[in-house]
Amino acid sequence: MTTPASPFIETVAIARIASPLLKDIYENAKDGAKKALAKWNTISYSKKFEKLVKNIDEVKTIWSPGESVSLRSFYHLAKIRNKKSICPVAAISDLGAGNVVIQGIVGQGKSMLLRYLSIQEVIKKENGRLPIFLELRKLTPKINLNLAISNYFREIDINLSSEVFEYLANSGKIVLLLDGFDELDPAIAKEASLDIEHLSKKHPELQFIVSSRPDNEIQKINQFRVVEIATLSQKDQGPFLRALGVDASKSAEIMRAIKDSPSNITELINTPLMLTLVVFVYQSESNIPDELPEFFERLFHTVFTRHDGLKDCFKRQHHSGLSERRLQSLFEAFSFMAQQGGQKRTLNRSQFNECFDLALDYTDGCFCDESNFRKDITRVACLMMEEGIDDITFLHKSIAEYYSAAFIKNSDDKFAIKFYKEASKNWHYWHETLNFLSAIDSFRFSRYFAKPNLINAIEIIKPLMGTVTEVELCKKLPPFLSKATAVFEKIKGKYELTNFGPILMPPNMYLLRVANEMHELIDFSWVLTESEAQALLDGEMQISLNGDSIEVPFGCALMRWSKKSFDQYLDTLEESFLKNISLAEKTSLKMTERPKIFSKRKLSAGAIRIK
């Protein structure tokens, strides 16, 4: 296992450590590439590289919203979950060879991990590589992946011609670390996925490390292996709190409070973000709320009366002049408008102003100007951060998603019903917000979203049950599955299964599990002999032959090699959906019958009579 680097190495020292690496890359280049990289052979160039390293290493956090700090000064090693064990990740080599998707849920520290691995790669004593660290959320329809890579090199005065990139990509001396695939605008996610797939096939020596939440296009690329970040265990809490600078006695106190909390809260405190927020809330409230909604409510209060464990608690000035409650209502509406407008985590000044104006229209009693609201949110609460001249970024994507959900929860039935209807059509925009709503607005979520969408999911899979022929199944497959094929390539006289896909985004949130689990029905040990391949080509199905590869429609592959497993899967799926419908009905019924409490007890004088 690789040992972590000392967090006290200055960025200038890291730049000097990297000098031999840059010199090696330069000396092995030829012709035009060598000429373009000539600056890497100069002593003065370390200043340029120092700036690049600093941009990766220094971050703003909820602890230090006003200034950037070295992530190595507080970083706690993340761990990945393998089939048999959980292992810490201190270097890219700990992930294994090949292209990797680092998958993690909300707040697991995916971005921090990629930044940390980038720095570690630079300071390796042997076989180090130049890290190309890119935040995918900054891609736009005009700035694709290839241009973003070129811009990265332009910042260190390298003109990345095709000749230079070909040399670097094939040299094995650079590694691409792409952060936040899930933060891509859905309109460009497919293109980005294809760009990554194309580059990975064209340059097998170029390693890709991509971070993402689950259930995205990147996980479907066959050249990529998916590893999961392990959740924080109880044993991780102490070391993590020490890394944050919390003293031993306070750490013990917080860990006792977590242990004594209800299980539904304890289970949520399993990511770096949640544990950090718990520290914030606990230091202010001296307890941990029993429910998730109450926790986020306390969090909003805490960020306005924060202390860092070393200073006395103090009251911060509200620039907007709004009470805490009204400011929270305005921020909830603002978060919703940002999501509704299709914005991701970062907004430019124009987008921020537009969301603010819309939020004002939907929030009663909130009179303030945009600049003072922005100061409260970025400098007092620090739920958003100013980046550069024009950009304002949510501290974490989940902050926007929760407070957006809170806005819906606090809205009237007419608005909520309309939202759930619209979200059913565009669920991928609202996925995490809907997950929050299932907890904080369970009655309306169950009645207006869960039940109708689960019924619709059953209607979509029902026609597939009991199919007996390949032609019949292929005709009945829903569009998100119908384009998929199993690709067999001729290797040493036999056809081996090498690729499967594509599976598209399903029209229904509850069918997302189907899109993910279909891969489990495909056995990559399937092999066709020459005669079996010819029999397929001679059959009535539309089997295509392209050189030495055969593309078999997904329905045909299922019927021939996985019919029994597929039938069992559909039965289990329907049973699961029916069970969830029953739960949704119970939740809905429980809330509907609440007013009956007034008829179950004799009314006392002055009690309210419900007609």
From TrEMBL:
PROSITE patterns, alphabetized: NACHT
Residues in NACHT domain copies: 98-215
Database matches in InterPro entries: NACHT_NTPase, P-loop_NTPase
Any matching Pfam family: NACHT
The name this protein goes by in its record: NACHT domain-containing protein
Upper lineage: Bacteria, Pseudomonadati, Pseudomonadota, Betaproteobacteria, Burkholderiales
